[in-house]
Amino acid sequence: MPVQRGITASWIWAALLLGLLGNATANATAKRMEPVDYVSPNIGGIGQLLTATVPYVQTPHGMARIAPITTPGITDRYLADKIYGFPAGPAMLMISTGKLSTQPKDYASTFDHDFETTTPYYYAADLQSWGIKAEVTATQTAAYYRFVLPAGSPAHLVLSMEDGAELKIVGDSAVEGSEKVGGTVAQLSAKDGETREYFYAEFSKPFRHYQTWQKDALSQIGTQTGDHIGFVAEEPGAGGDGIEVRVGLSYISTEQAQKNLKREMAGRSFEQVKEQTRELWNKRLGAVEIDGGSEQQRTIFYTALYRSLGRMTDITEDGKYFSGYDHKVHESNGHDFYVDDGLWDTYRSLHPLQLLLEAPRQEDMIRSYLRMYEQSGWLPSFPSAAGEQAVMIGHHAAAYILDAYLKGYRNFDVEEAYQAIRKNETQATMLPWKRGPLTTLDHVYFDKGFFPALAAGEIETVPQVTGERRQAVSVTLETSYDDWCTAQLAKALGKQDDYLYFMKLAHNYRNVFDSKIDFMAPKSADGRWVAHFDPKLGGGQGGRDYFTEMNSWTYTFHVQHDVAGLIQLMGGRDSFNSKLDQLFVEQYGTSKYQYLSQFPDSTGLVGLYAQGNEPSFHIPYLYDFSGQPWKTQRRVRQLMDIWYGDGPLGIPGDEDGGETSSWYVLSAMGFYPVCPGSPVYEIGSPIFAKISIRMANGKEFTIIANHVSAQNKYIQSAQLNGTKLDKPWFTHAAIANGGSLVLEMGDKPNKAWGSAPEEAPPSMSPADAGVAASGGS
């Protein structure tokens, strides 16, 4: 029927129009997404094997780092069944409509991720056991909580503390206190030798009734000290009532905690503080603008960038800071004081990424290291608020400081930095997880050129080797790299004798390469190779007799400062590339279960390459040195696609405070620093069509990947700042004042691009010294 057909047609046209309008609206909504809106802090909340991530609410580098405290013992935080409370500095804050108790577990509540909001600036969850909505936002040194109660349910507001704590009721609506911060190498018992964390908590309503406790005894006492102490106040509550708690934090005093709270939150509502922190994150994340890619890739990218901007932690308060290195309060003199770092890993990509985005802050971080040196006598390897942690191996402050210096960032005392580095390199023991003077093992390194391992069957007799084993091959390799860094800074400062001395030590990596087996291998103090060494499974748990958390398949490639020299040791490019190819397909030599039980840090496996642990991170980029950059392009894409996701299993291994995420950020942008301290970047394969990086000086560096896609991962040609680029690397100087890298991408490798020996990135050894010219197949 004609009329019916007309009606049907009109409905079809209307539907089409509505569909188009709907798509336009959806597209407009998508375009309105800002960088902070992509961040998903629950990514990685289930660990691949070891440590899960934490969905922190904080400002970039903020001292207040807030996340729900979940069920003790459940290390995969995303799978925890209960929220036990929220941080209030050293105290745990919780609210409950349940019974009165002196046990924090009795106030815990079930929660459900489907009724949870996680962002960098705001967290909210339904405390389902009590029918309470809990919300938190944060500033630099303070946290702001808001709780909404159900109708007619009296609530208990609780603050609990565990060890060496102090708690005091202040007036009718505030509580203050402190707790000793542990974990230093030499924990001092005297009060003036402690590091304490202080808090001042201010409640939006006067206490109707309160009690305190110690152990299991409730009382009306307004002050408690000791272990397992707490405070509980009763709030009558009416339907929809909100209770707010604002908490100031300090390492100086409770008075300073109160000042911090007033300075950052006085006169501001919860929503105002939340929006302020949101805008702060959006500005920092917006320093990298991306076009193209999928929603999932943008989520992974901006979440990784958020994690890359959390550390180091700025603990400056009102122009002052407390140092755990001399237990004194100092004036900051216009340069903030930073702690919480792990240089064994963060020198690799976290600090280089931050240097691109916030160079002046990095200079203050280096100044912080130098202050720690002045106050303690050593450059630390893992500075915390409580002092040196002496974690892992190596003295990688050398790499960190050199990298900033050679990239032109020098707003610190370079001469003092050199003297501090030199002291660490010549007077501090290389033993893992130790801080102290040289041992007999260290002298073997200086005298014979390698750190000695125990011979097969030999019993440890060196008294300083406690807790951690020698990790001798890794110590040799990482120390020779630190020596190279020290040599480069000595050269820059005109210290020729030191330069020659440390350059000799920088070649020590060669002394642990066994050409008979083509692997880095352990030697005993007499210079003999350790008998019966297995490059795959040797070294016991974590390989720690000889290596650091990994095996020789990984550490054989751990010569960042002299890849060309390593290629020579392996017999040239073809042999090197065959070995590198094999790494990505080599299997475990036992069951995967047994392999990971021995090497639990080796997660994110592709063959024996482990994306889950930092000594691997530079390895996919080594093909840039050996004439096969297209393999770097393929591998980095594979690693990003397989081992980084947008769900709770989305991190390949331990996050390590942003280091694992920083690898993704740099790789997704298309480049990576194989050797921090050499001011160059090796090129990989970007995943976005355009990346604009706004550096701290206001200049912009843009990477354009024409025709990029999942299949178009291979570079066909390149231009840097308008000039043809045939090398798979570029210098920092070329982009320091802005510029552009334009890559033409395709679905087939261009095996001619960047493959000639003279096009390889710089190394300590000349690239063409005895190196086969063939790029292989």
From TrEMBL:
For the Glycosyl hydrolase family 92 N-terminal domain, which residue ranges apply?
38-250
Signal peptide feature range: 1-28
The record's annotation in SUPFAM superfamilies points to: Six-hairpin glycosidases
Pfam assignment, any one: Glyco_hydro_92
GO-annotated biological processes: carbohydrate metabolic process; glycoprotein catabolic process
Which cellular components does GO assign to this protein? Answer: cytosol
Question: Its Enzyme Commission number?
Answer: 3.2.1.-
User: Where is the region Disordered?
Assistant: 748-777
Q: Which Gene3D superfamilies match?
A: 2.70.98.10, alpha-1,2-mannosidase, alpha-1,2-mannosidases domains, GH92 mannosidase domain
- GO MF annotation, one: peptide-N4-(N-acetyl-beta-glucosaminyl)asparagine amidase activity
Print the keywords alphabetically. Glycosidase, Hydrolase, Signal
Question: Protein name, please?
Answer: GH92 family glycosyl hydrolase
